[in-house]
UniProtKB/TrEMBL annotation:
Positions that bind substrate: T57, D140, E202, K232, D236
GO cellular component terms given for this protein: cytosol
Encoding gene, per UniProt annotation: ahcY
This protein's name: Adenosylhomocysteinase
Species for this entry: Saccharomonospora viridis (strain ATCC 15386 / DSM 43017 / JCM 3036 / CCUG 5913 / NBRC 12207 / NCIMB 9602 / P101) (Thermoactinomyces viridis)
Lineage of producing organism: Bacteria, Bacillati, Actinomycetota, Actinomycetes, Pseudonocardiales
Domain spans labelled S-adenosyl-L-homocysteine hydrolase NAD binding: 237-399
Class of enzymatic activity (EC top level): hydrolase
Amino acid sequence: KVNGLEFAVADLSLAEAGRHQIRLAEHEMPGLMATRKEYAASKPLKGAKIAGSLHMTVQTAVLIETLVDLGAEVRWASCNIYSTQDEAAAAVVVGRNGTPDKPEGVPVFAWKGETLEEYWWCTDQIFRFDGEGPNMILDDGGDASMLVHKGVEFEAAGAVPEPSEEDSEEYRIVLDRLRKSLAEDSQRFTRIAANIRGVTEETTTGVLRLYEYAKSGELLFPAINVNDSVTKSKFDNKYGCRHSLIDGINRATDVLIGGKVAVVCGYGDVGKGCADALRGQGARVIVTEIDPICALQAAMDGYEVTVLEDVVDKADIFVTATGNFNIITAEHMSRMKHQAIVGNIGHFDNEIDVAGLEKIPGIKRVEIKPQVDEYVFPDGHSIILLSRGRLLNLGNATGHPSFVMSNSFTNQVLAQIELFTKPGEYDKQVYVLPKKLDEQVARLHLDALGVKLTKLTKEQANYIGVDVEGPYKPDHYRY
Ligand code: NAI
């Protein structure tokens, strides 16, 4: 605690470097800046206490400061152990008018390279507003929401269960964290949950968790699925990954991608961006899919579509983008070419079976540099694993660039305003933002690209059955 401000970041002296990057990012984030301007006077988030769990990058710094400008109090953690940009975290803590000796910004609990224990400690910290909990959650991947849901479940049971044989190391750490919380205050998360007006969730994987809670009647508060705003998943997941996948591979390995054979597992929004980027570099790209529609899309986009088993010993680069688990197994990795590059861009680290890889008798891990590991098999051949199987675009690079994140985060801010200012209007279900707002987010990003939009005439609008001012498509339209 310095100057009355709680925080845990790597080094506050990085704040100036962070502030320069934030300043440049602001220019590239017209959606967020327009939102700041629009709501500067009315401050719709006044009274909001937002617990944020989302990659602590430069772009997220612009999001946090937008929430603050709209009146919110914020506490923040990253949603991944490797994704924090330490200079951005420092700048947010120091604030726009503070100094490293006298920080005046926002409590941030995040640094690059946390252990899993530290990660869950940081996540717990975002729920510790002065004297009480938050009344909003802003989540990416659902870890913050999961902590509250599990906390409430165990408080109702009066005890945290012992981990079972199948539980992952990470889940054991979550149980430990909740055991400590329960010992400290047996109703802590129950009270927190009762005060939460809603959660806005950033990504495919987190949204999946929320729909599961809603389906089983366990969802504790209303949720807005930000991911399925068109201006989020069809832009961030696709064009964002098209940029940051290559950035991660390049910074990690600097290997020439042109001419190589690259496999992309999953041809959803993320996979489409990844395949496009690898092809753009001149790689021969092979796609794997389980969904016949996405497989057909990949084939018509000109990719070979086959099963991993057939190409595992032929490809040079492997990228998982499925949001599923056990996509690349230890056995697959043992059959790969010498120095094949293996990385994941899906939300969680179980797409590649790293735990299984590390259990292979005689396997040796050589750290080439932070977040780049060579695994040497007993026969002498090796593979290069990026970010220990965690999102490589955030672990090995700095995630998506500002312009695309401006779209995602403008949706986040609108969703926060919606749930915070309309308590009682939403049930404990998962909602998406109305299409009108989605179109508004896109509109805010046109000028910066010099886009000239054609205006519908009244007659044309009548002819296709829409309003001149939009929305221009029915909800079932897929873009
Ligand atoms: P999506 O649902 O659009 O695509 C996933 C695709 O994987 C689907 O087409 C599905 O059929 C396919 N798939 C599932 N199991 C498979 C298997 N065993 N083999 C081959 N394909 C399989 O989801 P989206 O939006 O593309 O997201 C994918 C993951 O990436 C999620 O975990 C999401 O949270 C994450 N994400 C990561 C970002 C990043 O910056 N790293 C950005 C956005 C999303």
